[in-house]
Amino acid sequence: MARDDDEIQATAFTLHFKYSKYTVLLFADPLTPFSTIKTNLLVILKERYPDGLSRSDSPSPTKIPDSILDIVLGVPIDPYELSKGWDELDTRGGGMIETPRSLGLKDGSKIAFAFVENDEDKEAKELFYVEYPDLDALYPEEG
Questions:
Q1: Dist CA 33 CA 134 (whole Å)
Q2: Residue 36: alpha-carbon gap to chain centroid
Q3: Which of 2, 33, 93, 111 gives a 20 to 30 Å CA spacing to 124?
Q4: What are the C-alpha distances in Å from 95 to residues 18, 32, 58, 92, 135?
């Protein structure tokens, strides 16, 4: 039997965290600090992908960091066209006070994540690596 604090509340957001070909769904109350959300994301990633996350542009998997301070998050520039890139969310300090609601996120929001070391300063467009299916190849036009 589930404890009361393990149950998902009806007001919880479903957040879609994206990296390479991976999408991790997390349920979070809109007022949950990003420090908690990042911690939950790290736990899931380490449990599910202990050898790291693979990328099509790299022969070796990306190691999952130990600290939430090494995770950066981004939201789509255009939520209807994810391939246009990502803008970094201001959660670098661990996300102690930021929440999904305070950053304007909604239920079903897509959030890219990336790993950095020593608070690297990179352009968000280069930082976030998300792969998308080629819809033209999947659904070619019929003659």
A1: 35
A2: 13
A3: 33
A4: 18, 10, 29, 6, 35
Any idea where the domains of the chain sit in the sequence? 11-118+127-138
Tokens of 38: 């990042």
Backbone φ, ψ for residue 73 (5° rounding): -120, 150
How many C-beta atoms surround the C-beta of residue 141 within 10 A?
Answer: 5
pLDDT tens digit at each of 143 positions of the chain? 333 456 667 789 999 999 999 999 999 999 999 999 999 999 999 999 999 999 988 899 999 999 998 899 999 999 888 888 999 998 766 557 899 999 999 999 999 999 987 655 555 446 899 987 766 666 777 54
For residue 22, the cross-strand partners are 19
Contacts with 2 (C-beta within 8 Å, 6 or more apart), sequence order: none
What CATH class is the domain 11-118+127-138? Answer: alpha beta
Own/partner long-range contacts of 118-125 (Cβ < 8 Å, ≥24 apart): 119/69, 119/92, 124/74, 124/85, 124/86, 124/87, 124/88, 125/85, 125/86
